[in-house]
Amino acid sequence: ILGGTADTGIAQQLGSALVKGALLLVLLMSVGKWLLPRVYHEVARTRSDDVFVLTTLVIALLAAWLTHTFQLSMALGGFVIGMMLGEGPFRHRIDIEIRPFKDVLLGLFFVTIGMGIDLGVVTQYGLRITLFTAALIVMNVIVVTVLARLMGERRGAALRVGITLAQAGEFGLALIVVAQLHGVLPVEQASFVLAIAVLSMFISPLLIRFVDPIAERILAYWPDAPREEEEPEPLVEHNGGHVIVGGFGRVGQTLARLLERNDIAYTAIENNAEVVRRQRRRGANVVFGDCSDPRILAQCHITNARLAILTFSSAAAAKFTIEQIRDEGIVTPIIVRCHENSDFDELISLGADRVVPEMLESSLIIGGQMLTFLGLDEAEVNQQINDLRLTHRDN
Predict the structure, then answer these.
(1) Cα–Cα separations (whole angstroms), residue 4 to 15, 150, 178
(2) What is the pairing mode between strands 286-288 and 334-338?
(3) Per residue in 112-121, is it b (16+ CB within 10 Å) or e — as a string?
(4) How far apart are alpha carbons 173 and 262 in whole angstroms?
(5) pLDDT band at 152 (very low <50, low <70, confident <90, very high)
């Protein structure tokens, strides 16, 4: 607007953009909340990776085209629809399938930004750029922390969010480039601001890595706010200390109920979209994906998990998954369910910590109840069951 030659005033143009933006935001969020889950549910039923990738790309392009039609930023459409996709049960699968596109395009974006920085400006105003970067980070921490508090976050959580989001954002970089193209910002000033934004991003990983000690130190000097005991809150995505349940059929659902009853966090993975939708309505923490895919397991933070339980019906899939996990150097304990006792030794040799042969165990349970019903001593029955279990495993 500032660089244009329109006859209408700035206030009128901003008002028009605000109305269009609000309508567009409502439209995209409605589509993301009610339409996209149904679309992905039908796509998932095809079990086609190509259809899944093409659907994701088409949805992103349509959202960008829609915002462009409204004479707004194409990036805004992609951002909003991506945010909606990132909240659904298909987010892990989407993240894996579009990662190659994301890495390439993000690399090109930052290379373009870097080429726009005048190194002479950086050399000349190095100290000033450093001071402005520090001011930007402090201001972002304050603004984001206040907003998080207004949204009901606890004091410590709000501060950690503020520190994590203290850097300049990609939209800011894009805005600077657009302002330079339209002559609103001279080249030297644009380079100065870009240098500040890039330096804040350079510092961001350090802030994220040390967010806890930084937050603790600030909280110690927080005025009129006594240190509070932060109660753990339920998380949809667990980063550690949880149990991964691979497969969410009858066995997986039973295990999840036991974990819930004992207040143990878990993340379940299921490749049946209907099961995912139904169980999420029940409140289960289940995501869509193939639990034999090591990338999905990585997205669910298997490295930091307390335990992984693989409830595969296919011994081949179990062997492949265990082999992939151990080849990555992951030492998380693994319990595997298998149908036949013949796979026991091979699964153990590949790295499984416990193997439960389903047919053998069900037979032993039925046999134990049979003998108990016929009047035999329960201790003797248990001894016979254990002897049979060891005999079958040795054979």
Answers:
(1) 16, 37, 12
(2) unpaired
(3) ebeebbeeeb
(4) 47
(5) confident
